[in-house]
Amino acid sequence: MPAKIAFQGELGAYGHQACVEARPDHDPLPRPTFEDTIEAVRKGDAELGMIAIENSTYGRVADVHSLIPESGLHIVDEAFVRVHVNLLGVPGSKLRDVTDAHGHVVILPQCAGFLREHGISGVISTDNARAAREVAAAGDPTQAALASELAADIYGLHVLARHIEDHARNTTRFVIMSREADLRRRGRGPMVTAFVFRVRNIPAALYKAMGGFATNGVNMTKLESYMVGGNFTATQFYAEVEGHPDDRNVQLALDELDYFTDHLKLMGVFPAAPRRHERSA
């Protein structure tokens, strides 16, 4: 029996597309929420979890960065999905018939220009694939879904307008998580190390902590902060750097970071996807 990879959403979601593209040898396992996706991996219902963390148009996916550190899972890979947004309608409907387009709160801003141009109102749905399923079930030509062509195929909808995203390189980045860490060097390209930390409550602690990466020549590709525990004074950072924890310069930088933090946790080590650099080209 093939291994399973869990994702947030229903069949036809962009997370489903990410699973098909990145792990074609795994059976996709849909789950309603990111919490449910993580729990499926924790409990052993799935070997891997596909978690969306940021979109090049919308920005970071809310709440995910606070879920990942407490998940008990490890990041073992990343995947980039070119998000083509399509307007899907019931058979026989036309673009001019559509008054409302249903989609996830993340996808609506990605095609706001198209919706405005055509006088279509965006309606929030919990999931893009669910929106497609519900539009198909309703059979109303005035209602459409914003979703993938995979969703159109699954739910028998027609593509009324193809690739309506406002930005030509609209891309969502996913991380693939596992119960077991994988610290091997993989692939021919560079590795990425992900970690979370909280700085000690001393003056200029963050500035000093970051200095170790600069002086040791380590390229930090991501640094994001978010509140923890509902406390405005408790700020946690999620960071990614180029390199492997066994690299001497990364070791030195992390040692220096550890001195200025009261919490430091390695979240994963994974090969940098080629599209990590393509999307900014």
Structure description:
This protein is α/β, with parallel strands linked by helices. It folds into 3 domains: 4-83 and 171-178, Periplasmic binding protein-like II (D-Maltodextrin-Binding Protein, domain 2, 3-Layer(aba) Sandwich), CATH 3.40.190.10; 86-161, 3-Layer(aba) Sandwich (D-Maltodextrin-Binding Protein, domain 2); 191-278, Alpha-Beta Plaits (2-Layer Sandwich). Helices cover 26% and strands 36% of the residues. It has 9 helices and 15 strands. Helix 7 packs antiparallel against helix 8 (248-259). The longest helix is centred in the last third of the chain and has 12 residues, at 248-259.
Compact summary:
This protein is of the alpha/beta class and 281 residues long.
- Distance N to C terminus: 40 Å
- In N-to-C order, the SSE pattern is EHEHEEHEEEHEHEHEEEHEEHEH
* Rg of Cα set: 21 Å
What overall geometry do the principal axes of the alpha carbons give?
A: elongated
**Poorly predicted tracts of residues:** none
CATH architectural type of the largest domain: 3-Layer(aba) Sandwich
CATH class category label of the largest domain: Alpha Beta
How many domains, in number, for the residues? 3
- What name does the CATH topology of the largest domain carry? D-Maltodextrin-Binding Protein, domain 2
Within CATH, the superfamily of the largest domain carries the name Periplasmic binding protein-like II
Mean pLDDT: 91
Helix content: 25-40%
Q: What would you call the structural class?
A: alpha/beta
Please give the number of β-strands. 15
